[in-house]
Amino acid sequence: SATLTDVKNFFYSHYAPNNAILCVAGPVDPQKIIALANKWFGPIEKRNIEKRNLHKEPKQNSPRKIEIVRDVPFNAIYKAYHMCSRNHEDFPVIDLMSDLLSNGKSARLYQKLVKEKQLFSNVNAYITGDIEEGLFVITGQLYQTTSYEQAESALSEEISILQNTLVSEYELEKVQNKFESNFTFEETSVLNKAMNIAFFELLGGAESINFEVQKYRNVKPETIQKVAQKLLNENNCSTLYYKSNQQQ
Q1: Which strands make up the sheet holding 76-83, listed edge to edge?
Q2: Per-residue pLDDT reduced to its tens digit, 149-171
Q3: I need a labelling partner for 169 at 20 to 30 A (CA). Which of 7, 28, 71, 236 fits?
Q4: Residue 247: is its pLDDT beyond 80?
């Protein structure tokens, strides 16, 4: 229902030099870059930028569940938990928590629920939290012989272990090492370096990129357990049973 006027108003309310971050990386002459930036962006006038005011979703206080039947080949389950924003102190903890559960075939969910118990053909955990608050999502594709009751019980058991048993130093260090190696490898690309610097400037300060790895290194097993107890509870969870009509 958007009109061309709506689109223009949105554009002129957000796309302006005084609402942009420009980052140039590589073997360049800073004075030439400043001159070129002035040449191409200088003539564009400042605009009145609308204040960012996204309404926060109310806290969820009880479980939400929905069942949907579609023409898909497999039954699947999705469990989504509300989580914090990118700048919150819990963000690296939750990010590592998702890696502990499902980053690779040595992770907990694959080892227990795919390889050992053979309840799922595929299982995953990931986060959507970024500048705004997001979601911690656990999802899995069920085998035909697996009921939703079995699937949900198995996921609950793994969550309970995370909440009640301290992660070993070895297991935590493994996912911390993975994060650091991926983060460092990204920096070998000039494009990624520029994008990361610009993004961290948007978060509050480009220099904070230098402390990102240490934030993840500072996460302790006790912190993982504490955040898991707070985050991964059913009152904070919305569950989707995504049923295949081919398996009815």
Answers
A1: 64-70, 237-244, 76-83, 134-142, 120-127
A2: 999 999 999 999 999 999 999 99
A3: 236
A4: no
- The sign of the torsion formed by the CA atoms of 7, 16, 22, 129 equals negative
- CA-CA-CA-CA dihedral for 24, 30, 31, 36, to nearest 10: -10
Residue type, 186: E
In contact, 106 and 144? CB cutoff 8 Å: no
The 10 Å Cβ neighbour count of residue 119 is 20
- On average, the pLDDT of the chain sits at 95
Which residues are bridge partners to 79 per DSSP? 138, 239
What does the radius of gyration of the chain's CA atoms come to, in whole angstroms? Answer: 22
How many other C-beta atoms can be found within 10 angstroms of the C-beta atom of residue 148? Answer: 15
pLDDT digit string, tens, across residues 191-218: 999 999 999 999 999 999 999 999 999 9
Query: 78 vs 65, 185, 239, 247, CA distance in Å?
Result: 10, 31, 6, 18
